[in-house]
Amino acid sequence: MTIYDSLFLLYSIGLVISIICIIGVALQKPSDEQKLMLLIAFFAFLISLGYWLGIQANSAEAIIIAYKLMYLGGCSSYFLFVLFFVRYYKIKAPILFFPLFGLLCLLLIGATLTMDLHHWFYQSYAFVYKTGVPVLLKEYGILHTIYMIMEAAVVVGLIVVVIDQSRKRKDKEWWEPLLLVAVPLIPAAIHLSKLYLPIQIEIAAIGILISELLLIVLIYRLKIYDINDTAKQLIIDSMDDAIIVVDHNYQYKEVNEQAIVLFPDFAKAKKDTGLAEISPDLDQILRAQETSLCYRESRIYEPRIRTIRRNSQIRGYVIWYQDVTEAEKRKELILNYQQDLQQEVVQKTAQIKEIQEQVIISFANIIEIRDTITGEHVRRTSLYAEKIAAVLLQNGDYPETVNEHFIRLLYAAAPLHDVGKIMVSDSILNKPGKLTEAEWILMKKHAENGQKILENALSKIEDVDYYKMVCEVARYHHERWIGGGYPDALSGEAIPLSARIMAIADVFDALTSARPYKEIYDFDTAFDIIKNERGLQFDPILVDAFLSIRKEIEAIAIDQGN
Q1: What pLDDT was estimated at residue 365?
Q2: I want to staple 204 with a disulfide (CB 3.0 to 4.6 A). Which of 26, 130, 191, 415 is the partner?
Q3: Bridge partners of residue 300, in order along the sequence
Q4: In degrees, to the nearest 5, what angle opens at C-alpha 470 toward C-alphas 531 and 464?
Q5: Which residue ranges run through the membrane (predicted)?
Q6: Taking Cα atoms as reference points, which of 315, 318, 337, 334 lies closest to residue 326?
Q7: Residue 81 Rama label (left phi>0; alpha psi -120 to 50; beta)
Q8: CB of 460 closer than 8 Å to CB of 358
């Protein structure tokens, strides 16, 4: 293989990788950081495209066009890297820094785009072939010297910033600053060193290729612009309590819908804004760890504060405004009750609070795990399951199991039936086509993983009935009435009744909802599928109960946005 063939292959690989980087960033959740990364990936693509076109040039005019692309991408990338680092580390730059730096970059971009019309960037240049490779022999001008100084200054400045921030902030993994600084440092170091090497072939492309590979790692491992997750979808948004999440610097990160109702200023607040700017009262409560009751619109809330930790380091705080209105009313009534009844009410209230507290703690522990299940799916399946159980109670089916207590527990347990999908890769959950055998095996693991997650999260609660049902629903809702389901291939009444009810609710909602791998089925088709699985996938008694309330089920689906 000739030198030309080797370079062409290298530049082609770099071009492909740069395209992969653009696609990878574009698929991430939109945010300001994601937009910056997308621009960086795009200008890295321009640099790779310039090298790829340059290796195929057959004239001075053609190779000059390639050089223009390289320098356009380089000037823009260094400006964006500085902007990205300032935002990532939340540094307050001087007011005139970015206008002046941006003006310098625009000046250099203009000089490079017109390099063939003046002698300030290249005093002279000539197109030749070296060992079969097209090369531009050039004498550098003053603007090229300024460009090299800017490139060196940016790299040194970024290294200083990373070292300084790593010393101040201990909440980052040790490899994060190394990865961040390596992306701009490697290509710049090769570019600068080329000035002192006796070679005319452009070797800076090797640095670009390495930098793009690191960029892919930065996107998929560091995940610097993703703070939402499945726990928020499954738990926080479906709660009647208000949840506010801030980081260790008291910067606002996330709230649920109820928090916006109680604190309307969050509706227009931007993330990463100081909590004190949005709500001074909340900031004071958090810093003072106050727990006095809050009265809002005839409701009573009790603020609680939970600390989010990772590797013994404080990562943030959860301010939890628990609705204790009913509990406070009960306290007034308890004063007139007998002592035994008073004790029972207090114990039941404590059990409810313990369940909610453990769920919130679970959220804090898994706040960095991602999933795609929506809150609407959770609400609909919970309502479907509750309606089916109500019909069983009315008809007297399974009288030894079904009562009002069973129905309440089922409604409370249903939202967590798919919590195990937190441990399934996004590439599998969102795959539009059929899963491979290996992917399907991983997908099926979500049932037993869900049980394990809930066992760990709720192991300390005293409500044994709730603990048992929520674990049953998570593990067994994919079992089949005639057997052959997963994870344990149970059949008939060996499958817990709560899981058998959940199976129908889950399948019906999946049929009537848009998923990456299927289109939406209309109600007639969905009900026919459920009916045809009577005695096969589903318990016949439960199917009959489900079909008997078709109008109510359709009303729920329509009302809940399906």
Answers
A1: 44
A2: 191
A3: 295
A4: 135
A5: 6-27, 36-53, 65-86, 98-121, 141-163, 175-197, 203-222
A6: 334
A7: alpha
A8: yes
